[in-house]
Amino acid sequence: MNISTHYQVHISRDGQLRIDSEPQVVPDGVDPSQVVIQVLHIEAAGSGLPVLVQVQDDRTNSRFDMQVMPDCTTQAPGTPAVPAGPQPGATEPQQQPISLFDRLAAAQAAGRAHDFDTAIPAADAILQQLTVEQGDTAAATLEVAQFRADLAYLSGEYAFATASWTWLALAWFDRLGPGKRRTQVAAQNAAQAWMQLPLHEAEPLAPDLVSMLLEVAAPERTATMRAHVAERLGQPSN
Questions:
Q1: How far is the CA of 29 from the CAs of 16, 20, 214, in angstroms?
Q2: Is the dihedral of CA 197, 203, 207, 210 positive or negative?
């Protein structure tokens, strides 16, 4: 059987999902394995060929292979393929709505290709929907907000990235508590984005950035970042 692509999937004990080492959004109440199928079926549908997935699931200490088919079903590797024929109702005027998973996967693919004209509006629409449906600090909303902040950084919107990552660091801190890796990564990303700004754009964002760095960790843990900020602003470092 022809296989279009191979993917490595890792599901951690706490349900975090990575596909080929790239973190994926897992909405509250959704099993990570279902997200895998939703994301990779787009690849299969685009090529018309099954996608081979090698899964390591730490929750059950299991390893297994499966194929994600173009029609969003799964089967064991080596199962004979059934040629895809015309889909029932394909010519009917009413089509099934595109799922949130599919929209996010498409936006992520566009982002990886640096097609920001496609990825950014798509991410904004998904983020707006999740904010309305789940709230602005729900885990799924924050995950998509991180993706949007990444897009801002990659596309050179450093002010937007700085403000987004500053807010995300505080949001993860409020949601998870002190000492969590997500919070620390967000804080570091905010500082890194701020450093890319010209000084006249960086100065207005500095107070919120420094305040966040002091709030989300013990002061000594962000001392180096705060010193770099103060040095750039020509201020004495405390």
A1: 13, 23, 33
A2: positive
Cβ(44)–Cβ(69) under 8 Å?
yes
51-57 sheet: strands from edge to edge: 22-24, 17-19, 5-11, 51-57, 62-68, 74-75
Cβ neighbours of residue 141 closer than 8 Å, sequence gap 6 or more: 127, 130, 131, 134, 135
Q: d(Cα 9, Cα 7) in Å, to the nearest integer?
A: 6
pTM for this entry: 0.59
Query: What digits encode the pLDDT tens for the residues 144-185?
Result: 899 999 999 999 999 999 999 999 999 999 988 777 888 888
The distance from CA 51 to its chain's CA centroid, rounded to whole angstroms, is 21
Alpha-carbon span 21 to 184, nearest angstrom: 19
From the number of C-beta atoms within 10 Å of its C-beta (0-12, 13-18, 19+), residue 220 rates as: exposed
Q: Residue 125 CB: number of other CB atoms within 10 A? A: 12
Cα–Cα distance, 76 to 87 (Å, whole number)? 23
